[in-house]
Amino acid sequence: MPNSPEFPVIRPRRLRRTAALRRLVAETRVHPSDLVLPVFVKEGLNEPVEIASMPGVFQHSVDSVRKLAVEAARAGLGGLMPFGIPAVRDAIGSAATDPNGILNVVTRAIREEVGDDLVVIPDLCLDEFTDHGHCGVLRPDGTVDNDASLVRYAEMGVSLAEAGADLLGASGMMDGQIGYVRAALDEAGHTDTGLLAYAAKYASAFYGPFRDAVESQLQGDRRTYQQDNANVTEALHEIDLDIQQGADIVMVKPALPYLDIVKAAAERSPVPVAAYHISGEYAQIVAASERGWIDRDAAILESLTSIKRAGAGVIATYAAMEAAALLR
Ligand code: PBG
């Protein structure tokens, strides 16, 4: 019977028999140092406030984010990505370039707390600071003015570099932003401050919870600057342009619905590739696990492993701390 030709000689199941065997032959390993934790900091807060659509994620005060930064460094995370929620917003996002504006203050505070133990990557985008919620300044007709926005990004980039950023998360999707900000940083003497380019950033329904987190005042959508989810070619073009303009890392966002883009980026990019496992991706796991429909820990690890397997060496995720604990 065992030697009958109907039975297989080659048995792939052998290497799946025990956890030790599976571990031995695992091709992809997520490490805490791959993970970057996005953090929200709101001006004027005294106590952290949980974000309703992102259970387990908080709007922080400057003090509570200091504590979180120390814990993140202790957990061996790769970095932190602070987002600021200013007390006052206006048409040009003035608080973004004020040295005492919330994101500059937080960047300085994190740097002070953890030194060089974590990579600090503040979000270089105006949307948290503008009263209309767009990632740029508007023309009188309400459309986003690309080149006027670049001037603001350059000013914001220099102020974040002065506050101690290692990398700037350039997420605004304006044409030419990487080259323009790179030149401004260099001119100001910040040749060591790098650019993490949100090279392929899609207009996505999965950003919903983020917009609660930053209390976005956006009306409408970002489809005139973020990419159409039907397209691959323009993502590759955007990635190439950002690399030509001096991006140090290129990011794809969102992550799981765009793993084909992550893979294509990894195949063509000479610089490291990152992916952002975004708010809606996190919220789906949390909501389904709260209903008992999926296993939260397993879903998180499976998501992060898949993103890494597709080719992203750096993963921004709200689950960074819990993933680091699970991986230990
Ligand atoms: C723009 C920015 C956004 C996110 C990161 N940077 C929002 C947007 O483009 O609407 C979304 C991240 C997430 O959903 O987790 N500053």
Automatic annotation (TrEMBL):
A GO molecular function held by the record: porphobilinogen synthase activity
Pathway given in the UniProt record: Porphyrin-containing compound metabolism; protoporphyrin-IX biosynthesis; coproporphyrinogen-III from 5-aminolevulinate: step 1/4
Q: Which reaction does it catalyse?
A: 2 5-aminolevulinate = porphobilinogen + 2 H2O + H(+)
First-level EC class: lyase
The keyword Repeat is annotated on this UniProt entry: no
Signal sequence region: none
Where is the chain membrane-spanning?
none
Q: What is its EC number?
A: 4.2.1.24
Which keywords fit this entry according to its UniProt record? Heme biosynthesis, Lyase, Porphyrin biosynthesis
**Lyase among keywords:** yes
Q: What does this protein do?
A: Catalyzes an early step in the biosynthesis of tetrapyrroles. Binds two molecules of 5-aminolevulinate per subunit, each at a distinct site, and catalyzes their condensation to form porphobilinogen.
Q: Which PANTHER family match?
A: DELTA-AMINOLEVULINIC ACID DEHYDRATASE
The record's comment on protein family reads: Belongs to the ALAD family.
Assembly behavior: Homooctamer.
Q: What is this protein called?
A: Delta-aminolevulinic acid dehydratase
